[in-house]
Amino acid sequence: MTSDSTSMPPAVSDPLVPPLVDPGEIDLRPLAEADVLLVALDFDGVLAPLQDDPSRSRVVPASAAAIAELAGLPRTQLALVSGRDVETLRRLASPPPETMIVGSHGAEIDLGDGGDDSSDEAGATPAETSAAEVSIANAEDSDDEAAAEQRAAEASALTSDETALLAAIDDHLTELARVSDRDGFDLRIEYKPYSRTVHTRGMAPGLAKELRKHVVSVQSEHGGIRVIEGHDITELAVSQATKGTGIRALVGAVDPTAALYLGDDITDEDAFAELADMDDELTGVGIKVGEAPTQAEFRVADPDAVAALLTRLAEQRRGFTAAAGEPHSPAGRDQE
Questions:
Q1: Are 41 and 264 in contact (CB under 8 A)?
Q2: In percent, how much of the chain has pLDDT > 90?
Q3: CATH topology of domain 13-124+242-329
Q4: For 162-198, what is each residue's pLDDT tens digit?
Q5: How far apart are CA 207 and CA 98, in angstroms?
Q6: Could you tell me the residue ranges of all domains in the chain?
């Protein structure tokens, strides 16, 4: 049976270690003054406050302004790293076109305009074939035209084993949808190219616990299915890629001398760990958002604190690059 490596993040520290700090207390000079800077950010809970309805998530306006400026600065590459699929993330976050996207917890990698949007390591799929977010309340909805088109797109990118596992997940969730219809509760399922996510935010704790138990039971029958736990979600995935996989791919593409990563969920611990493992290659700074246990170096409170931090970084980075007489442009060492 395959379990998710992010369920038990390696070597995490106790809660609130590191302590919460004001974003103004974090020394950003190693990032702002880097030769080439990679800024990689989670979406939900970092750029956008968590929502009961995930389709309503939007970037905090101050963060939107900051990342737009960062994306236009020389030798600075912006990236979003999320459990969302690439297509949905681009629609909800509306990032600058040069932004690189890691979606589906590392299973999708899109290097942006003019970039290679595939990764052998991650088993990535181009953004054009990624699935849109779809929610269903009962079994009949899972067979509608949108779901059929989505599955056809997925089939072109999946291996035969992944296709079989995803079909098993869909069959399992269809049965669960019939139960939800019978018992009168909403089953919110998000369809992604390599996974299905069941959202429990807003549910009574007892119902959410029982629902999770039913969702993960399919793993006992199909050992290749990976269970990913997050903030009020349980995800069933057929790819073994992680956000750490995504960070490694981004570093390979950008070749930065410094990298920043901000994340709030347990799945982000893989990215923090990967960044720490690359300390001989670059200056890495990991920042946890919220109070969950982490191995990140710093911790800030919430998306508003993230907005303040990114605004500071954009200002300092702009001053550094302006002093060097460099015009605004997308990042990349090939501009040297």
A1: no
A2: 72
A3: Rossmann fold (3.40.50)
A4: 999 999 999 999 999 999 999 888 899 999 999 999 9
A5: 42
A6: 13-124+242-329, 132-237
